[in-house]
Amino acid sequence: MKIGLIGAGHIGSTLAHLCTAAGDDVVIANSRGPETLHELELDLDGHARAGTVEQAARFGDIVVVAVPFGHYQDLPAAPLDGKTVIDACNYYPQRDGHVADLDDDRVTSSELMQRHLAGAHVVKAFNAMRWDHLREYGHSSGAYLRYGIPVSADDQDAKRQVFDLVEQLGYEPVDAGNLAEGGRKHQPGTQVYTADLWADDLRDRIGVEA
Ligand SMILES: NC(=O)c1ccc[n+]([C@@H]2O[C@H](COP(=O)([O-])OP(=O)(O)OC[C@H]3O[C@@H](n4cnc5c(N)ncnc54)[C@H](OP(=O)(O)O)[C@@H]3O)[C@@H](O)[C@H]2O)c1
Question: Could you tell me if 153 and 124 are in contact, meaning their C-beta atoms sit under 8 angstroms apart?
Fold first, then answer.
C-alpha cells in the first residue's frame, strides 16, 4: 500500500516503522520540512521518504494525520480529495486550545476534520493506544488473540481499507460505528482510551458484536 503520513512525531514515526516493516511505501511529512527528517529516514533504512505535507497527501492511497489536533485546519484539502484519511488525532484543550463545540460535546473532533476535508473519507483509528505500545503490541500474541484497534468512519469502503491496514500491522480492527457515535466511543476520557484491550474485550466495552 502507499501510505502518506502527515506528522512525524511519536505516532507518525511509529506508523512509519510499522508500515515499512509490513512492506508499505511511505512518504512522511512534518511542519518544518523534509530536510528536518533526515535522521528518521536513516532510522527507517531508506524504506520511507520524507516529503512536504502536500507530497505526503498526494502520495498516499491512505493518508494518516497524526498532528496535534489544534493544527487540523492547516491540512490541505485539495490533495486529499477522494482519499481515505486516517485521523489519529485527539483533542486536548490544554494543548490544542478550546473548541466550544467539542467542550460541549456537540460534535466529535473527527467530524470537524471531516468538515474541513470535505472531499476526503475520514476514518478515526490509531488514536486510542499509546505510541510505544502501538509500536510493540502488533503481532505480539499470535493469530487468535490480538489487541483491538477501534475504527470509526462514515464511508464503508474507506473503513474496510483501514481494516486491512490495521490487520496488516498485526491488530484486530473493531468497528465502533460512524464518526459521530463511534468517534465518541474511543476518544480521550472513554473507558477504552489507552486501555490496551484484546479485541473481544474492546467489543464488549464499546457495545458491539463480533
Ligand atoms: N503520543 C501518543 O501516544 C498518541 C497516541 C495516539 C494518538 N495521539 C495523537 O496523535 C497526534 C500526534 O501526537 P504525537 O504524540 O505523535 O505528537 P508529536 O510527537 O508532538 O508530533 C507531532 C507531529 O506533528 C507535526 N505537525 C504539527 N503541526 C503540523 C502541521 N500543521 N502540518 C504538518 N505536520 C505538523 C509535527 O511536526 P514539527 O515537529 O515539524 O512541528 C510533528 O512531527 C495528537 O493529536 C495526539 O493526541 C498520540
Answer: yes
Residue in 19, 5, 8 with CA at minimum distance from that of residue 47? 19
Render pLDDT for 112-136 as a digit per residue (tens, 0 to 9): 999 999 999 999 999 999 999 999 9
| Pairing between β-strand 121-124 and β-strand 148-153 as defined by DSSP bridges | antiparallel
Our CA dihedral for 60, 64, 67, 72, rounded to 10 degrees, sits at 80
Would you say the CB of residue 109 lies under 6 angstroms from ligand 1?
no
Average confidence (pLDDT) over 151-155: 98
Helices (H) then strands (E): counts for the chain: 10, 8
Q: What is the pTM of this model?
A: 0.98
Report the amino acid identity of residue 167: E
Among residues 210, 206, 167, the alpha carbon closest in space to that of 185 is found at 206
Ligand 1 and 63: CB distance under 6 A: no
Q: What number does the ligand 1 atom closest to the CA of 95 have?
A: 47
DSSP state of 77: S
Homologous superfamily in CATH for domain 2-206: NAD(P)-binding Rossmann-like Domain (3.40.50.720)
